[in-house]
UniProtKB/TrEMBL annotation:
Cofactor(s) recorded in Swiss-Prot or TrEMBL: FAD
Single GO MF descriptor: UDP-galactopyranose mutase activity
Name assigned to this protein: UDP-galactopyranose mutase
Record carries keyword Isomerase: yes
Gene name tied to this protein: glf
Family, per entry: Belongs to the UDP-galactopyranose/dTDP-fucopyranose mutase family.
Keyword line: FAD, Flavoprotein, Isomerase
Length: 366
């Protein structure tokens, strides 16, 4: 059989593309090297009956009504606002840094209109913002940088703040009030039955054939198709012509506590300076599941393993640009998603990227 599209990767990018293209009347072969759909957003019930995210927490948030309405075709939602604490010397403080963080940490009693002056008194003026260190020092100064940012960044990325592009630290704001929500997006929800069921509904179209535990190398030699949607690492696609692009990986350590209702007081606790893991997430907060016992995951960043995060540095971006030029010259292939675009996209950004790509391909079969 000849397919209109071969879609490589069944995560958000590939699944959205498969759904959109099949709905437009195209035949789609969707493959994934893993034995499940959903990519890193895949969730499942563990052996103790708790719905978990095997590849770490995935918390949906967006300001785009369009993205929210699109995904709402495949799931109902559970309202959920994520909250994070950071542990310093045995005490826990809200993250992003807010008024409560400052008052508790420094034994102060600042009011909302006084917090900005506090930040101003601590800031170190940086004339040219080039790195994440520049961003943090220019925002909150040296002490808060050392307490909350430098150690966490070194664990997460294997690099110092001064070695990372400014955009990494720019993702985390500071606040002058007591708002302790990790995100402030207009839409903050979790799929009511989980991500995997949402993906199953998304991919239920009769024009989609799904093959799991299938490599791209095998499919491109054994199948007939007119166009490829590639959502894997772009350097892999071009056989590392300009050398491998650096990615940061993760190792996950899952643990269940059968007699504990809740392990910690909020969904995620960060550990910027202690231990060799960056954070612990407790899934019952995310899912709202009522169950005996609780399951957590600890995240250990590492250099080897499946690629999770493109590492934002100028030299890496220069290498990516070379691959991007090859991609633009390639006929009959479209690159979609975080790894294919070497971008630190959130889930909603991946969906937007996939929808945009499919709109450009609309009516095109070659």
């Amino acid at each position: 059989m000849q397919y209109d599209y071969l879609v490589v990767g069944a995560g958000f990018a590939g699944s959205v593309c498969a759904e959109r293209l099949s709905s437009a009347g195209n035949t789609v072969l969707l493959i994934d090297k893993r034995d499940h759909i959903g990519g890193n957003a895949y969730d499942c019930v563990d052996s103790n009956g708790i719905l978990i995210h095997p590849y770490g927490p995935h918390i949906f948030h967006t300001n785009s009504q369009r993205i929210f309405e699109y995904l709402s075709k495949f799931t109902d939602w559970r309202f959920y606002e994520h909250r994070v604490l950071a542990e310093l010397e045995g005490r826990r403080y809200p993250i992003p840094i807010n008024k409560t963080t400052i008052n508790t940490l420094y034994n102060l009693n600042l009011q909302d209109d006084e917090v900005e002056d506090f930040y101003k008194s601590r800031r170190i003026a940086v004339s040219e913002i080039r790195t994440s260190e520049d961003i943090v020092l220019n925002s909150v100064g040296h002490d808060l940088c050392e307490k909350f940012f430098r150690g966490y960044t070194r664990k997460q990325w294997g690099l110092d703040l001064s070695e990372l592009s400014a955009g990494v630290a720019a993702r985390i704001p500071t606040r002058t009030n007591d708002d302790d929500r990790y995100f402030t997006d207009s839409f903050q929800f979790m799929p009511s039955e989980g991500y995997s069921i949402m993906f199953e509904k998304m991919l239920a179209h009769k024009n989609i054939e799904i093959r799991l535990s299938t490599s791209y190398e095998y499919a491109k030699e054994s199948e007939s198709y007119r166009h490829t949607i590639f959502t894997g690492p772009i350097d892999l696609f071009f056989e590392y012509k300009f050398g491998p692009l650096p990615y940061r990986s993760l190792r996950f350590e899952h643990e269940h506590f059968p007699t504990t209702e809740f392990f910690q007081e909020t969904g995620t606790v960060n550990f910027p300076n202690d231990f060799n893991y960056t954070r612990i997430t407790e899934f019952k907060y995310l899912t709202g599941q009522q169950a005996e016992g609780t399951s957590i995951v600890r995240e250990f960043p590492q250099s080897d393993g499946d690629p999770y995060y493109p590492i934002p540095r100028p030299d890496n971006e220069a290498t990516f640009k070379k691959y991007q030029e090859l991609a633009e010259q390639s006929r009959n292939v479209t690159f979609v998603g975080r790894l294919a675009n070497y971008r630190y996209y959130n889930m909603d950004q991946v969906v937007a990227n996939a929808l945009s790509a499919c709109e450009k391909l609309s009516g095109q079969k070659g």
